[in-house]
Each structure stands twice: as C-alpha cells, then as structure tokens.
Amino acid sequence: MTDKNKFGLLLLGGGARAAYQVGVLKALAQTLPRSHGLPFPILSGTSAGAINATALSCYASCYHLGVKKLEWVWKNFHTDMVYQSNFKTLYRNLLKNFSPIRDENISIKNESWFDNAPLKSLLEELLDLNRIQINIERQYLKAISVTASSYHSGDSVCLYQSGDEIQPWVRAKRRGIHSAIKIEHLMASSAIPMIFPSVELHSEFFGDGSINQLAPLSAPIHLGAEKIFIIGMDQPKNRFFYHEDKAIPPTGGAIVGHLLDTIFSDVLTSDIERMERINQTLNFIKPEYQNLSGLKNIQTLQINPSKSFSEIAAKHYESMPFSIRALLRILGINSNTAHKSSLISYLLFEQNYCRELIELGWSDGLARIDEIKTFLEIG
C-alpha cells in the first residue's frame, strides 16, 4: 500500500467551470464514512481550482463537511458575488482602465475588464485560513499549494503551506515559495488576464496561475505526491468552425475562448505525456540507481467532463447580467452564437449553470467511482 501522505489532488483553473470539480468531489464523498478525513493530504490548485483546494484544506479533518460547504456556495452563486456587473460600475471600470486619457493623480493603472472585489469579500467571509496550519499540525493535511504567475519574471510560482520538511525549490520558469496561504494568494491565482486585476505579492505582481504553468504536475510532486488524482477541464471537441465540412473563420469571442482553453487545459496533456515517458524510462533503470537519478515513478488518474461546458453554458446565456451580454456582443457573442465560444463557460457565475456542472461532475464521478477508489486505495 502507498503511504497516504503521498496521495495528491490537482485542481486546475477555469472560472465558473470549477463547479464541475465540486460534483466529482461530491461523488467520492458519498461513498465514504461521514467522519472520513481528506483522502488526499496533498492539495494543489490553480485559479478557481486553488479556491476549491483551499476550501478543502480548511476542512481537512472532515472531507464530507468541506465538500458540503463548497457545494452550498457553488449552488447559490450569482455573478455579483464574483465581480461587479451593474452597468454603471462595469462601464466606469472599463473607461477608467482602458481610456487613453490618464488621470495625472494615478501613476499606475491595474487594467482589467471587471472589478472582482466581491469575490475577495466572499472568500474573507467563508474561509478561516487559520485552520490550515491547525490541520497540518494535527496531520489531517500535509500540504496545500496555490499557483500564480509572475508578470515580472514570467515564472510559474507555487505558494505552498506545509511542515518544515518540504523545502522551497527553483526550476526552469517555475519556483516554490513557502508561505502561509492568504486571501491575496487566491485572488492572484484566479486573476484571469485582462478580465480580473493583477495582485501584488512578495514585491511582484501576479496573475492567473494557469499562465506560464508549463508543468502543472510539478507542484504536487514537489510536495511529495506520488499518486495524483486530477479533475480536469478537457471537454469534448466540437466542429463549430466547420459548415458542411468547410472551415469557417472564428469570431472574436471564439478566439478568446480558444485562448482560454489553451491556457487552462492543454498544458496538462503534454505534462502527463512527459510524466509517462519518464515512468517508462525508469522501468529500464535498476531500482538501486533510480534514486540517484532524482526521478520517481508517478501515477495519475484523470477525470474529464463527458459533456461540453460551452454547450451547457449556451443554454444559460440569458441568465447572465444584461451588462455582460452587451459587452460580449462586441466580441460577436449573442444568444445565437453563444455555443460557439467557450468564453461564456468561464464567466457564467449563475446558479443554474453551476448546478448543472455540479450534476455533471457528480454523474461522471459516480460512473468511475470504483476506479477512483481503487486508485486512492479506499476499501
């Protein structure tokens, strides 16, 4: 049997799509005793996945309670709980940040489409981050990491909280910094470029952790994980850019959505492929020499959505605030073209959409529950 402290959970970003993660976690929780602790003592999260991971770390002693709290929040989400969406505030923010006319009294502008101050207030209200250290000391949790991207160095920075046995690291374009997790870390990790403002940490400005994250598996591996359960966001591909097998040009909204998909999902596939090649190479090295290589065999189990987030989001397009829909029309996104851009699936923080994603995650999780429990060595 594998040492339980070597089990990790990796939750990547995706804005409102992260509701899907809650459904998968709920499916697993249903099969465990109500008093069961966290099945994966190493938690690694990026962007919205960092928020979910941190919430779990606060309730590491009772996995059921952590999932229940997460589900309640996601099931009752509204856009105004994440970013200000009324016409006056939204367009004032756009004019202030992107107008060529600068206020002489303001030397620095933190440019973004939306003001996500409501999200910060929500996290401060819901998360008692002092519990993280308590859970580490009581051995319910080994480590929690939040990944953000430095606009100054271009590095993918893993901010992690753990015991003293895990030392900071520096690799090509990525590094780990030992730091107590704070609300500012979560705001930085989820600051989608141009959409939400960057955040200053450790004398640098940071944005969404999915940017420059060339090796998503790096963080949990550095924290000691050897078996990593991954709740991914790689959705079924579509043929929206074809008409009768003839390629058609994408709209501005479709291009933005494509860029976000690339940032949030595609790097993980290549990182897993690289890991599998390392595992194959290690099989040809004698066990006594494997430790000398500094490499170790890593196992992963990934679960991805069985349905398209974009198509689900399109059904709930009209539930978005009118001001946001008006802004999206500039990018060519309306009720008729909503299904052709994945951008909406990232921004649609409305309860009916989030509830459908939770239901999808729950269904996908139950469909593979035996495989998940076997991987996590849960009897």
From TrEMBL:
The keyword Cell inner membrane does not apply. It comes from the Bacteria. Keywords: Hydrolase, Lipid degradation, Lipid metabolism. The keyword Ligase does not apply. Residues 9-221 form the PNPLA domain. A motif (GXSXG) lies at residues 45-49. The active site is at 47 (nucleophile), 208 (proton acceptor). This is Patatin-like phospholipase family protein. It comes from Catenovulum adriaticum. The lineage of its organism: Bacteria, Pseudomonadati, Pseudomonadota, Gammaproteobacteria, Alteromonadales.
